[in-house]
Write a sequence for this structure.
């Protein structure tokens, strides 16, 4: 049999202060782990959104496709005659195709697509001319041919483009001003005839400051809208200076299954951001001014930037939806 111990010590008194410190330490450790885990998940969703919303390859393909077809020989324009030749041989043939390579006539829907591209034209091309302000010496420069001078309400003399053959076309070139624009007629034959009228009536003359052609496109396979803006400048001395810019952008946001996956990620990201923001506000209320003396201030500034980005995204989505609604309700000729 085992013998009893010679000396029995009484149980030690509980150290409540040490136990309290250990409990507080465990609670702080758990809170820090939760914050780190929440931040890691937040950063993971942020990284996914930043990478998933990139459509640079699609945009590059769309830009290259439009540039190779519409802007052929565009950079060699140096005189008004070359401008008219380029517009008839390249621009109008690209915008208004009529036959396939084998000579067969295109169907109506196929003719709406720009030649050799996957984008169809939205509405007619828009041609705008900005003219130099006329002075007293040029008052009697033109009488019956194309441009004439009139009396404006603001800057005195102004230009008016009066051609009887253009009265049947929708444009605003007949008003007395120095900024004139009109829509190019739909159809290759009508557009060529219209261009000939402009050439015969010296629409592009020595008082022309710049001529801008704007064409809108939509690529249904890439879901991209594009604006091709071509500016031919004559503000300096000498030959013309052509420049061009193609801007592609998305208006449709959520259509396919992948898009709805992005929508889910956006919602979760916004929820996580709201949780983190609430935690920071609680910490700010608890710590007071001391909150801004540490690195917390830098984190709070980043949260403000994130909130601004989310607000801009929501505003962009609302504007895009309103724009699409306007497009769907408008009766733009094609």
């Amino acid at each position: 049999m085992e013998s009893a111990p010679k000396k029995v010590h009484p149980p030690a008194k509980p150290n409540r202060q040490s136990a309290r410190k250990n409990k507080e330490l465990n609670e702080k450790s758990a809170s820090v782990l939760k914050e780190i885990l929440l931040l890691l998940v937040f950063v993971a969703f942020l990284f996914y959104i930043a990478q998933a919303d990139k459509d640079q390859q699609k945009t590059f393909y769309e830009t290259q496709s439009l540039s190779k077809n519409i802007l052929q020989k565009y950079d060699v324009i140096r005189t008004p005659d070359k401008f008219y030749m380029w517009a008839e041989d390249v621009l109008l043939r690209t915008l208004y195709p009529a036959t396939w390579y084998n000579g067969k006539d295109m169907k109506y829907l196929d003719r709406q697509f720009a030649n050799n591209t996957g984008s169809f034209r939205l509405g007619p091309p828009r041609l705008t001319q900005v003219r130099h302000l006329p002075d007293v010496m040029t008052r009697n420069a033109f009488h019956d041919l194309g441009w004439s001078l009139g009396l404006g309400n603001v800057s005195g003399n102004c230009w008016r483009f009066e051609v009887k053959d253009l009265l049947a076309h929708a444009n605003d070139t007949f008003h007395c001003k120095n900024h004139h624009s009109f829509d190019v007629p739909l159809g290759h034959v009508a557009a060529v005839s219209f261009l000939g009228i402009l050439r015969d009536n010296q629409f592009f003359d020595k008082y022309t400051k710049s001529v801008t052609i704007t064409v809108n496109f939509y690529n249904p396979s890439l879901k991209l809208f594009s604006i091709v803006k071509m500016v031919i400048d004559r503000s300096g001395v000498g030959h013309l200076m052509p420049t061009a810019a193609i801007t592609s952008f998305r208006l449709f946001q959520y259509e396919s299954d992948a898009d709805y996956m992005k929508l889910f990620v956006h919602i979760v990201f916004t929820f996580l951001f709201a949780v983190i923001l609430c935690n920071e506000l609680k910490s700010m209320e608890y710590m007071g001014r001391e909150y801004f003396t540490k690195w917390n201030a830098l984190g709070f500034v980043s949260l403000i930037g994130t909130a601004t980005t989310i607000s801009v995204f929501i505003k962009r989505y609302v504007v895009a939806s309103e724009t699409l609604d306007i497009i769907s309700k408008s009766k733009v000729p094609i």
